[in-house]
Amino acid sequence: MTTAHNRVEVMHGVNLDMLGRRPAEHYGNITLDQLQVKVRGFARELDLEARFFNTNHEGEFVEHLHRVHQLTDGLILNAGAWTHYSYAIRDALEIVGLPTVEVHLSAVGAREEWRRHSVLEGLVLETVSGEGPDGYRKALGLLKERFGV
Ligand code: DQA
């Protein structure tokens, strides 16, 4: 049964539906579906309930953020390349006001210069990057700690 403060919405942005076809040295071979199955399992181990949303459309991502406060207690965001330039997504995240962890599969700090900056900085509890799928387990753990459940 769902208890208060155990719901986590995991949102994937642009090009993350192409996992499995993206450079394996950064993203491995896992598909988005396989990643989501894995993350649901991590969540269950922590007595959390994960739900998933993904889109390649920035406006849809923003609109999902507008409504998500009714659906969840915390967020895990991997906004893909939007991370680095979408002030629209930053503003929407500010409106949501829910505890959020930013996750990147790849080590964004060790790649091209333009990936080193995140417009979400200051709005997220923490950024986890370069740990592949396990980064989501860490993010769930951080949210669980924050929920105090
Ligand atoms: C990413 C890193 C971003 O720089 C990139 O644009 C992505 C994926 C990651 O998960 O490592 O699409 O967010």
Describe this structure in words.
The chain is an alpha/beta fold and 149 residues long. It is 36% helix and 20% strand. It contains five helices and five strands, in the order E-H-H-E-H-E-H-E-E-H. The protein has a five-stranded parallel sheet, sandwiched between helices. The protein is globular, with a radius of gyration of 14 Å. The two termini are 14 Å apart. The mean pLDDT is 96.
Radius of gyration, CA atoms, in whole angstroms: 14 Å
Helix run count: 5
Mean pLDDT: 96
Please indicate the percent range of residues in DSSP E strands (runs of 2 or more): 15-25%
- Major sheet characteristics: 5 strands, parallel
Total strands: the figure is 5
Sequence stretches where pLDDT stays below 50 over 5 or more residues? none
Q: Strand arrangement, largest sheet? A: 2-1-3-4-5
What binds here, in terms of ligands, is: 1,3,4-trihydroxy-5-OXO-cyclohexanecarboxylic acid
Distance between the termini: 14 Å
Any idea what the shape is?
globular
Would you kindly provide a brief summary of this structure?
By secondary structure, the protein is of the alpha/beta class.
Give descriptors for this structure.
5 strands, 149 residues, 20% strand, 36% helix, 5-stranded parallel β-sheet, alpha/beta, globular, binds 1,3,4-trihydroxy-5-OXO-cyclohexanecarboxylic acid
